[in-house]
Specification:
Strand order of the largest sheet: 1-2
Structural class: mainly alpha
């Protein structure tokens, strides 16, 4: 005990606790990194299942076997065209989110000088303009967070998503939102076109349940040895039963994913229109009005760009890339290669919806 009568904490106790926590966190991050690769395969497998059921088992044969001018054939062809277009956009937006750099902090980035008001204000580390990441041993811009799974700081980080095996940040947040929307539309469309086949599943169950006791046929007559030999017609019925079963599984998955995605879309739509990330929603103090909220229109264009044509495509125009580079990366700071990226270090930084500050006739480095 100490001189004041209180029990003394053994030296190194807190260090041991922190060490075990760091070991646990490191193992958890390694698990999440490994899980990300598995989740990508699961996503592709689910897309493959819906494609196989919708195209190979149902509407592909229907379109090829129907009369060319029949309404049934035209409907099946239309379903295939729309479905392939949706799957294309789902895969495009998904791989864009997986493969795109979410938001690397420029090398040598330094924050603006700290003024007296900033120094005297009692703000949390996340609210300060001058923020230092001890893990990366480097300055990090405003709204930038360190991802323990990726092991680096990410600009305007929203969250780390195991489904895409990547962080969702400034550069791929638009692709993430498009992936949610296109997947929701694709699952709803797939569920609608498979609805009639889904109903057939229960009709087959009802018809199959009419069989009598073991050793008897469905009409109640005694089974003979010849009944155990499968005819071509019976084999065809068995195949049809397998098709209906595949339709049942695909339909249930479509409805389940559509319902869950709808909640995510509503949440991220509200966050996007408020210029708030998921991390900020849970961790930052809710000050009203939100200091990054510049109106729904400007908040939307900060993520999706100024041109409506680019809103639907999982890609960024060169102007939007420079805008993201300026408004999301810099937050008032500078870095050595700004002029090589076509940005003017002496100009004010851009805010949501504004044209990016840039040098005349300069080329945006990250724009390629």
């Amino acid at each position: 005990r100490g001189g004041d009568g209180r029990a003394e904490i053994p030296p190194g106790t807190m260090a041991v606790g922190e060490m075990w926590w760091n070991v646990f966190a490191s193992k958890a991050c390694m698990f999440l990194r490994a899980l990300g690769s598995v989740m990508v395969l699961i996503v592709l497998s689910l897309i493959g299942l819906t494609y196989y059921t919708t195209v190979v088992l149902v509407y592909g044969p229907l379109a090829s076997n129907a009369e060319p001018d029949s309404s049934e054939g035209r409907f099946a062809t239309g379903v295939l065209v729309v479905y392939h277009a949706l799957i294309l956009m789902v895969l495009w937006s998904y791989f864009a989110c997986v493969l795109t750099e979410p938001g690397r902090v420029p090398d040598g980035w330094t924050p603006p000088p700290e003024d007296e008001e900033e120094a005297g204000a009692h703000k949390s580390n996340s609210e300060k303009l001058r923020r230092f990441c001890r893990k990366c041993t480097a300055w990090k811009p405003e709204r930038c967070h360190h991802c323990s799974v990726c092991g680096r700081c990410v600009l305007k980080m929203d969250h780390h998503c195991v489904w895409v095996a990547n962080c969702v940040g400034a550069y791929n947040y638009k692709f993430f939102l498009l992936f949610l929307v296109y997947t929701f539309v694709a699952t709803v469309f797939d569920a609608v076109v498979l609805l009639s086949n889904f109903v057939d599943f229960f009709k087959d169950l009802q018809a199959g349940g009419g069989g009598g006791e073991s050793g008897r046929n469905a009409d109640g007559s005694e089974r003979s040895p010849l009944d155990d030999i499968a005819s071509n017609e019976e084999m065809s019925e068995t195949r049809n039963g397998g098709v209906v079963a595949a339709v049942f599984v695909t339909f249930v998955l479509d409805v389940a994913f559509a319902a869950s995605l709808l909640g995510f879309i509503i949440m991220h739509a509200n966050l996007n229109l408020s210029n708030m990330t998921t991390i900020e929603m849970y961790e930052k103090k809710k000050t009203l009005p939100w200091r990054y909220n510049r109106g729904s229109n400007k908040n939307f264009t900060e993520v999706f760009g100024m041109s409506w044509w680019w809103w639907w495509i999982p890609a960024h125009s060169s102007d939007q890339l420079r805008r993201l580079l300026d408004s999301s990366r810099l937050s008032g700071g500078t870095y050595p290669d700004m002029e090589l990226d076509g940005l003017d270090p002496n100009a004010e930084y851009s805010v949501a919806g504004q044209s990016p500050r840039g040098l005349d006739n300069a080329r945006c480095g990250p724009c390629g």
